[in-house]
Amino acid sequence: MATRLAICLCAIAVFQSCLVPVLSKQTYIVQMKHHLKPADYATHADWYSDHLQALTSAESAPDSILYTYDAAYHGFAAALSPEEAESLRQSDAVVGVYEDTVYSLHTTRTPEFLGLEAVDGKWAGHGLEELNQASQDVIVGVLDTGIWPESKSFADAGMTDVPARWRGECEAAADFNPKIHCNKKLIGARFFSRGYNMMAAAGGKKESKSPRDDDGHGTHTASTAAGSLVGNASLLGYASGNARGMAPHARVAAYRVCWSSGCLGSDILAAMDRAIQDGVDVLSLSLGGGSAPYSRDTIAIGAFAAMERGIFVSCSAGNSGPAKASLANVAPWIMTVGAGTIDRDFPAYATLGDDRKFTGVSLYSGGGMGSKLVDLVYNKGTNSSANLCMAGSLDPAAVRGKVVVCDRGISARVDKGAVVKEAGGIGMILANTAASGEELVADSHLLPAVAVGKKIGDVIRQYVKTAKKPTAALSFGGTVLNVKPSPVVAAFSSRGPNMVTPQILKPDVIGPGVNILAAWSGAVGPTGLEKDTRKTQFNIMSGTSMSCPHISGLAALLKAAHPTWSPSAIKSALMTTAYTLDNSNSPLRDAADYSLSTPWAHGAGHVDPQKALSPGLVYDASPDDYVAFLCSLGYTVEMVQVVAKRPNVTCARKFRDPGQLNYPSFSVLFGKSRVVRYTRELTNVDVSGSVYKVAVEAPKNVVVTVKPATLAFKKVGDKLRYTVTFVSAKGAGASRNEFGSITWKNEQHQVRSPVSYSWTRV
């Protein structure tokens, strides 16, 4: 469907509810002072309903309330008029009243690429089979577009009984029968649409109320995180082989919060609230909006409650790269995941009439064009958007029977191919512009099509303009493995610096997010277009939507191996063991222009699950530490209470600088002072008697001193602190930003923290 949001390489956008036609009522999220509930009310829900009715003209207050929140948030979502919302804001029992927000989706070989096929490998005393067995007790909750339960990726062969602690369920719908569609693998399936229905009433598309995924995105992400092993998987012959999730024996609980026009904050919060109560161990959210203060960030607020209960929360960083400061989901208690390539490619070729042959990528699976050259055209249309091949822009008389060059941008890549085909074109060369640089993303187009980078695109565009009779032929090379260099940071992956809290370096890591094969919905073709009638059990997609569930699944493995570790410890293990050299032993590069990547693009680096399972040391942080962090941001006590949901917060304890949080990376801001000093604490998760020495990499204009330079841990679980002092050289402010690292080493481990340096805020 043309309006679907699962096309992952769209810009992240947050659309306030005022963008839809104004109704007399719209959805508001109301935060209450939970502890003020009078004793004569049996439940908070009863109190909320009476309070709403007493303060507003909402005579049907119970019907006005869409959700009552408990675990993730103290309050409710309700359909209110602006006047009723303002009346609630005046109440002493109300913390705040906020308009609902629309979030968007951030839309196989990866187990081998990540080293998860090493059956003989021993990780922290755990063999793969032992880990697989333990991971059956781990439950991964996925908030997305729902689930296609018939997929083989959710088969439960060989799985043990559902953990007795599980409190979730599969909800029945006209097209979803819990007795048939759920099993020991897919143990939960719920849907949350009340917020979306309010927006749909204003002119949006109404959809069936069901956990069933008619989009494909949710099935893809869930199977990436924890899909069962499926043999002979492919997308119409591409990427053929075994498909499996990162934690193939973990359980899956699907929470449908996204619909054709987006994902409403009220629905997301309700799903997080329910997932916490259901008993998930990991929450995976491949969606987001723009940056906002944590007290106004629905996902950050829900994630804080999850973290307090020991739940690891992984979120996509967004697809707004390579622009700087484009990140989403930057709260330090969230794992913020960027995207990189893997060592698999799908080459395709454009041969021009002057015998020049250029390599691009494609997932086209049809009959092809043969070797005969045909006419090649560019910007032949009825309006100024013909170069972009926008709907209705091409002149059929000018493109019929020809290959059309289309500039990438504005509309979806697969939409452009459909426009060319509809106008009578028989092939397409999709050419990048400066916005996408040299990044190549393969698509399963409806006609022969090859995607090329900006440099090749410029050459082809010039050829069309200058040749007397420009011609081209397109051909396809199938699947190629062991591609070098890889990984490469995806150009679309959103970048730092972190504009909400510049003292916290984000993203945290990158994971596989380009051309990822995973399970797909039977309700939609691989392009997601309504005119695409092809059906496939698996699809190849790209986006930080794809990298996020990789990390969610790896977190499930770490949870299985180390059930007592906190979410912060798991995050630390994944970050401090990440690598920054590609498979050609060179520093990671950026697909935008193939320059060297930086921690603002790749964070701590690319995840390495084998090393993460035995990291040696971890940077841990408690919920109280995160409260102290919030207090250090200059927030009022009320703003801290919005996030932490603690009535007795006083901010008596706070950091002198938000960067004092015990985080596995450093973001150093030189302002009025040329000296920045932080203290960190490391916990020994290795063996007794472990000794580590520090190694520092720093730019020439910064002197870094670490004291002590040696840490000797007597026992497992011991905690030791060190202080690092950063001193900027005089006049170094001319340097806009620099990068380095601090690494604690012994013969077995390297516990590495990236460091970013900024002299002025971007």
TrEMBL record:
Q: Which domain of life is it from?
A: Eukaryota
The residue ranges of the PA domain are 375-458
State whether keyword Secreted applies: yes
Main location, first listed in the record: secreted
The GO molecular function terms of this record are: serine-type endopeptidase activity
UniProt keyword annotation of NADP present: no
The Gene Ontology CC terms held by the record are:
extracellular region
Q: Where is the Peptidase S8/S53 domain?
A: 136-581
Q: Where is this region: Disordered?
A: 203-224
- Coiled-coil annotation reads none
- Biased composition (Basic and acidic residues) is annotated at 204-218
**Alphabetized InterPro entries for the sequence:** PA_domain, Peptidase_S8/S53_dom, Peptidase_S8/S53_dom_sf, Peptidase_S8_Ser-AS, Peptidase_S8_subtilisin-rel, Peptidases_S8_3, S8pro/Inhibitor_I9, S8pro/Inhibitor_I9_sf
Instruction: Provide the protein name.
Output: Subtilisin-like protease
